[in-house]
Amino acid sequence: MTILFLAHTECDNTLHKSALEALTAAKALAEGMGADLAVGVIGADISAAADSIGGCGAKFYGVAGPEFADARYSSDLTAAEAIAKACGAEIVVASATSRFSRALPGLAIRLDGRVDTHLSGLDAVDGKPIAKRWFYRQRMEGTLTRDERPWVMTLDSGCAEAFDGAGSADVEAVAVDVSGVRTKIAGMECVSEDEQTIRPDAEMLLVAGAGWTKKQADGATHVDVAEETIMSFLTATKSSLGSSKSLVDISGEGGAIISFLTHMHQVGQTGSTPRHAKGLSTCCHGEEPHVVGWRFVNERRAINTDGSCGWAQGKCDVLYVGDAFEIMKKVNELLG
Ligand SMILES: Cc1cc2nc3c(=O)[nH]c(=O)nc-3n(C[C@H](O)[C@H](O)[C@H](O)COP(=O)(O)OP(=O)(O)OC[C@H]3O[C@@H](n4cnc5c(N)ncnc54)[C@H](O)[C@@H]3O)c2cc1C
After folding, report:
1. Using an 8 Å Cβ cutoff, are 128 and 40 in contact?
2. pTM across the whole model
3. In what residue span(s) does the Electron transfer flavoprotein alpha/beta-subunit N-terminal domain sit (predicted)?
4. Residues 194-216: pLDDT tens digits?
5. Domain 204-335 falls in which CATH fold?
6. Start-end ranges of CATH 3.40.50.1220 in the chain?
7. Which residues lie with the beta carbon below 6 Å from any ligand 1 atom?
């Protein structure tokens, strides 16, 4: 039996950390099931990527060429199908990148198999594969197995240790014809690190609440100052930015908005549940539907003018009762 780990290269022909994590999970699953591990790499130039994980003890397959440099459903799917067939994969494990999240459900259809996406872990129990998945906004973790094969699984990032083991990889080239593919890639625009304020790997989360856009002690709003203060902090610390629902909803209500906030930033019951070592909440009341999104943030601090706000009810480690405009200005000065 063969378990195939599939990876695609990044723009610089390396493998993303999430791919290395999925490899760790795939390798452990293969060992637990007594199965062979195969690795399939798709990309423009895959040799360096294959060598970066050459020590994993797998047989390597590759589909390489300029047509496979960028995400494109049809070519990614054709390449993945060719590799899966070349090694006779019964289980396919890959990282749930946007590229594979789009292409690999189609792989399951092509192979007449099944797919489970956004898994949080893999395990082998009595030689049987087990997939783990969060349910109900990460309040419960479920386990499931399937008898149908091939079983395609994509694993979310941050759920396994990144594989570390370079070595010379002997890659069997798999021929794939994509000359009939009509979708042409015109180019790729990558957001710069400073534009991208959601940074899942950051040490710290800064949450901005609706208070930043409310009338302040002088009776006026200062949204422009709020924007600059928040952005200065993010630029200096490379923290990830989160928001309360009230603040991201303001744009729909016609109020003055923090221009770089989107609904993707919303933390909470109907938003995200990010994982950062530390979190600092500013101008956010700390109501329960928001704070449930902090479940995996270990050290929590908040700044609020209201000493009896939600954060004060045992929801943070330290509450600074004060004006976030003033405090964050001082913090930014100290950060230089
Ligand atoms: C079903 C349901 C789901 C929900 N899901 C979510 C969710 O996923 N995420 C979420 O965030 N909310 C969610 N909410 C909404 C949530 O209950 C709150 O309404 C929301 O979090 C409030 O946002 P806020 O604290 O930013 O704004 P506000 O409640 O307006 O609080 C603003 C705070 O800013 C403080 N402040 C003002 N000026 C300053 C200053 N200069 N310095 C310091 N502090 C200042 C004020 O004292 C106040 O505490 C949900 C609600 C429901 C009913």
Report:
1. no
2. 0.79
3. 3-183
4. 778 999 889 999 999 999 999 99
5. Rossmann fold (3.40.50)
6. 204-335
7. 209-211, 214, 216, 244-247, 266-271, 283-285, 287, 289-290, 293, 303-306, 309, 323-325
